[in-house]
Structure formats: structure tokens, C-alpha cells
Amino acid sequence: MNPDQRYFGRVPVPDPFISFRAGRRKVCVVSALEYGRVKRDSAFDMVLPLEAWHQQARRRWPRRRIGPAEVILLLAAHYRIHAFTVPDDFPAGVAFKLVRHGLKLVPAGGLIFPEREIKNAAEVAALRTGNRCAALGIAAAEDLLRRARLKGRWLYHQGRRLTAEDLKFAIETACLAAGAVSLGTIAAGGNQGCDPHESGHGPIRARELIIVDVFPRVTATGYHGDMTRTFLRGRASDAQRRLVATVCAGQQLALAAIHAGVNGRDVHNRVADYFKTQGYETKHTPRGSVGFFHGTGHGLGLAVHEPPRISGAVDYELKPGAVVTVEPGLYYPGLGACRIEDVIQVTAGRPKLLSRYHYDWEIR
Asked: Where in the sequence of the chain do the CATH 3.40.350.10 domains occur?
């Protein structure tokens, strides 16, 4: 479900469809499967039947296989449009066909709807709901860890070893019950957690750090939550406690630095410099990276990752009303990993927190 299409038409459509602006009118072309619902529920000014435009295209090109490009060419001619601004991920095959037939395409070079970056009150409410669902998922994982029994190096639940799959099932079930779908959920322990996008698999060990990252999409609105907490079942070592305390302090440092007009690169560098002063070096080796090697945060909305960015790789001035995650982390195989993530809205002063869950992580 394309977030740009959802934003433009304010209606969920599972399959790809054509939409564009003709003057001041929002126009879309959908199949009979979607026509009645989109015409009734969407923000489009004109809803056109795909089947009728397919028939026109077949008459125009009787020997050609008809697809989206042919329909778009007919629409462009009908509405006297000579050029379209298209999203950066516009399908390449369709683009080549359109350009070959003389239609000009201009890549947006960022969000095709820049206004998506600034969230209004309704969007903020939807994001709060997404984060409430994420918190319920994290709570389900924490509850399962609390109920697990320690036997030697392992955690047991209902007579067998507790696994990452068990944690993810509990998380995703809780999110689903709350009205959200959580895909790609992360519950990664030990060295698995040192790969930030490893979702986690196999048995969970006692006394190892476990990263739980939940980013559900609310079914009713399409908006996401995105929260991360780190847990450990058993008694942590001094080195583990120091790692977690440092990440917590780094996140608070970032939160204190964020306000409208600040450069996201400066916020990120402040966190990276703090980690370095605490003795946590970032290194890139042939076997992988260790330390703090991802951005501090990203925009959140109809997509899990969207502008703006809080990263050392780009200059990006944060605007009032933007919604971003704040998620520093440290990753050291052998010791483990910690990441803590919350969602905020940028203001002229202290950011507005849109997510809420406690930070108690050591479950004895």
C-alpha cells in the first residue's frame, strides 16, 4: 500500500493504481474492485474506471500489450498534460515507456508531497495510536520474559526453551488485537542484536541483552508506531549495565538537543561524540561494524522510514511539526547490543513525546 497514494487520496487501496493532479483536481483510475469504495470514501475529485480506459487503449494500440503506461499516455493526452512530477521510486519499466513516447517525467527528488513531513493534529493522534500499539507489543514481550524460567544458560516457557519466534508471536498478536499489523518485528538477543536489522531467531539465552523493536501499522489509518526497548532476563553484568546506561544517556542528550531549526547532523554528532568520550568506539571491519553505526532517527508517518533524517550522513534542518524517532544504539558482539527508541514531534522548544513505555530493562 503506497504511502504517497494513501496520503493523496486518503483511502486505502491494496493494489497499485494511477492517480495524478489535473489542474486543481485530484484524479484517480481504479478497477471495478475498488471503484465504488474509492468513489464513496476517498478525497479524489474524479474517480475513473480502469476498464473503460483499457478499452480505449486497446482500440488505440490493437497490437500492443496494454498496461499502465498506455493508460497514462491516454490520460495525459485527454487532460493535456505534457509532464508529470513522479516519486523517486516510480516504476522504471513504466517510466521508460512513457519517456519513449514523448511524455516528460521529473523525479521529485524527495517526498512528492513535501507537506507529508509536517504532521497535523489528526496525524499526531494517529501516530500516538500507532505507538500505543507498539507499547502493547513490547509489554507482551516483557510479560513473556518475566514468566520465563531460568535454567542454566537458557530461558524456558511452558516446558521448552523460549525463542525469538515466541516473543515475536506475542508482540504481533498483541498489536493485532489492538488494531495494528506488526511486520518485520525484531526480537533479537545476544550477538543477533548486534545486527540492527536482524529480526531474531532461535532460543533466547538467559542474561543476554535482547532488543525488541516494534513498528506496527494501524489498520484504520495507515499510520505507524515505532518503539524499541532493550531487556535482559536474569542478572546483568557491570559491562551490560554500563552499556545500557550509556545508550539511555545518549538518547536523553539527543532529546534535549532537538528543536525546530536544529540540524539533524548536529544532533547525531553530539550523540556519537558522547559515546566516544565514554569509551565506545565505532569501527568498520571486514567482519562488520561495531559501536554506533546508524542514524539517530528518522521521520515516521504513513511509512516507517520517511524524511526528515537525524544522521551524520546528511544535513537536514528539523522543521516544527515534523515527527521523528530518536533511537541511538551501541552494538558489540560478545557483550551485546542496546537500542532505545521513542517518537517525538519537533517544536520550537522541548519536543512533544508521542510514545510512552518505561525504561526498566533488567528482569530478575
From this structure: 3-112
Element (H, E) at 137: helix 121-147
Burial (CB count within 10 angstroms: exposed 0-12, middle 13-18, buried 19+), residue 331: buried
- Among residues 211, 152, 199, 201, which one has the least CA distance to residue 329? 211
Quote the distance between the C-alpha of residue 58 and its chain's center.
40
Q: What is the mean pLDDT of the chain?
A: 97
- The CATH superfamily assigned to 3-112 is Creatinase/prolidase N-terminal domain (3.40.350.10)
Conformation bin of residue 58: beta by default, left when phi > 0, alpha when psi is -120 to 50 = alpha
C-alpha torsion angle, residues 115, 118, 122, 123 (rounded to 10)? 90
243-263: per-residue pLDDT in tens? 999 999 999 999 999 999 999
Q: b vs e for 301-319, b when ≥16 Cβ sit within 10 Å of the residue's Cβ?
A: bbbbebbbbbbbeeebebe
Q: Cα–Cα distance between 191 and 204 in angstroms, integer?
A: 11
Spatial CB neighbours of 114, under 8 Å, sequence gap ≥ 6: none
Cα(91)–Cα(52) distance, integer angstroms: 23
Buried/exposed 198-237: b ≥16 CB within 10 Å, e otherwise: bebeebbbbbbbbbbbbbbbbeebbbbbbbbbbbbbbebe
Q: Is the distance from CB of 338 to CB of 243 less than 8 angstroms? A: yes
CATH of region 117-363: 3.90.230.10
- How does 61-100 read in b/e, with b if 16+ C-beta sit within 10 Å? eeeeebebbbbbbbbbeeeebeebebbeeeeeebbebbee
**Across-strand partners of 227?**
214
SS3 category, 87: coil
Phi first, then psi: what are they for 326, rounded to 5°?
Answer: -130, 105
Cα–Cα distance, 293 to 33 (Å, whole number): 45
Name beta bridge partners: 229.
212
pTM of the model: 0.94
